[in-house]
């Protein structure tokens, strides 16, 4: 039995085991429900707090994200405005540069026009000068004065060609000659360029007018005879021909490495051909070296052939002498063999004589001489 005291009145009750368990169960159920209710309430309060916290954090994150987006948008707007400003500046600079280039081109065009006008004016003045020059000279003196003009022009710039040769062509051994020969070389003596010059002019009153082409064949022959690389005709012929008045005329379609010029292009043609050949000078030196090497090889081959021929002759002579010596040796050997046989025979005779001498004794010598033997016995020679 179990006793239970009432908490209110203090009375003590006695109950059996089953009632006690029932009361305990009721008390436990009541306490469990109260505790469960408290826990549910605490959980709900905690859940509410967490929800509120999450809401607050979510709101804060949204605000931060919105602030970051707004900051990025502002930054992009700023960059776009900066780009727009830069583009405007670049466009402005490009326009200014284009305007400056247009102004420069216009100025250049004006300068070129002025230069062309001056060149045309100079050309007209030069033509007038040479026409007047020809009119004041006799037919004989015209060519001589043109040569003197070219010689003067070259001597005026001679310091530019320190190794150059520019002299009259006085060698007519080939049947004809040119007027001047120009040759230039480097400090090592390798030729850079060589030019055969012919100067031609005539008076306006000359009945039969010559053309430049009338002198090209002779000039080409003179160039080849004097071993020059180029040929140049300095001409005042055909003064009304625009082809020759416009500048240097290349005639290589008719004759190799030939040009026709007016006197004002005399120094430019020398400079042009010299500078052009300077670029190929190293190849020319290599060619000379290769040619020298080939010449050395040919000299070596010729020396080798000469040595072989001389050696063959010496060998044939020596072989003949050798054979003759062999024959003489064979004859000498045969003669020596005869001498050898005679000596061998003589040696046999000497050997026999020696054997006989070795066998000789007093007894044998006195064999048939008893009186001599008696004398030797007396002297104790024979025992």
Biggest pleated sheet: 6 strands, mixed
CATH level 1 name of the largest domain: Alpha Beta
Tally of structural domains = 3
Strand content: 5-15%
Structure commentary:
The chain has eight helices and eight strands; from the N terminus they run E-E-H-H-E-E-E-H-E-H-E-E-H-H-H-H. It has 383 residues and is of the alpha/beta class. It has three domains: 2-98; 140-279, Trna Endonuclease, Chain: A, domain 1, CATH 3.40.1350; 281-383. A six-stranded mixed beta sheet has the order 3-4-5-6-8-7, with helices on both faces. The model is unreliable at 137-143 (pLDDT under 50).
Write the layout of secondary structure elements.
Blueprint: E1 2-5, E2 12-15, H1 17-135, H2 139-156, E3 165-168, E4 180-185, E5 191-200, H3 216-225, E6 230-235, H4 242-245, E7 249-250, E8 258-261, H5 266-279, H6 281-359, H7 362-365, H8 370-378
Parallel strand pairs: 5-6, 6-8
Antiparallel strand pairs: 1-2, 3-4, 4-5, 7-8
Describe this protein with a few key phrases.
383 residues; alpha/beta; Trna Endonuclease, Chain: A, domain 1; 3 domains; 6-stranded mixed beta sheet; two-stranded antiparallel ribbon; 8 helices; 67% helix; flat
Short description:
This protein is an alpha/beta fold and 383 residues long. It has helices at 17-135, 139-156, 216-225, 242-245, 266-279, 281-359, 362-365, 370-378, and strands spanning 2-5, 12-15, 165-168, 180-185, 191-200, 230-235, 249-250, 258-261.
């Amino acid at each position: 039995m179990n006793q239970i005291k009432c908490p209110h009145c203090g009375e003590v009750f006695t109950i059996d085991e089953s009632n006690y368990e029932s009361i305990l169960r009721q008390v436990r159920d009541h306490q469990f429900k109260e505790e469960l209710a408290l826990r549910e309430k605490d959980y709900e309060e905690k859940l509410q707090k967490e929800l509120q916290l999450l809401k607050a954090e979510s709101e804060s994150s949204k605000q931060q994200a919105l602030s970051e987006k707004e900051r990025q948008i502002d930054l992009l707007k700023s960059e776009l405005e900066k780009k727009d400003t830069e583009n405007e500046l670049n466009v402005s600079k490009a326009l200014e540069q284009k305007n400056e280039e247009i102004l420069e081109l216009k100025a250049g065009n004006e300068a070129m026009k002025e230069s062309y006008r001056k060149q045309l004016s100079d050309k007209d003045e030069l033509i007038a000068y040479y026409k007047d020059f020809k009119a004041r000279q006799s037919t004989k003196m015209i060519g001589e004065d043109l040569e003197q003009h070219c010689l003067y022009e070259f001597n005026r710039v001679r310091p530019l060609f320190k190794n150059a040769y520019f002299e009259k062509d006085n060698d007519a051994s080939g049947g004809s000659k040119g007027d001047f020969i120009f040759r230039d070389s480097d400090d090592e003596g390798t030729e850079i360029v060589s030019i055969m010059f012919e100067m031609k002019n005539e008076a306006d009153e000359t009945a039969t007018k010559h053309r430049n082409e009338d002198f090209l064949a002779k000039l080409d022959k003179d160039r080849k005879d004097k071993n020059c690389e180029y040929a140049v005709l300095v001409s005042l012929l055909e003064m009304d021909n625009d082809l020759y008045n416009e500048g240097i005329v290349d005639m290589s379609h008719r004759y190799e490495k030939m040009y026709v010029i007016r006197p004002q292009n005399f120094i430019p043609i020398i400079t042009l051909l010299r500078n052009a050949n300077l670029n190929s000078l190293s190849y020319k030196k290599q060619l000379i070296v290769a040619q020298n090497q080939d010449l050395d090889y040919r000299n070596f081959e010729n020396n080798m052939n000469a040595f072989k021929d001389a050696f063959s002759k010496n060998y044939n002579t020596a072989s003949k002498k050798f054979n003759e010596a062999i024959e003489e040796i064979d004859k000498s050997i045969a003669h020596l063999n005869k001498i050898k046989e005679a000596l061998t025979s003589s040696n046999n005779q000497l050997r026999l004589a020696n054997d006989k001498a070795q066998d000789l004794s007093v007894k044998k010598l006195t064999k048939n001489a008893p009186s001599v033997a008696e004398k030797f016995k007396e002297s104790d020679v024979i025992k």
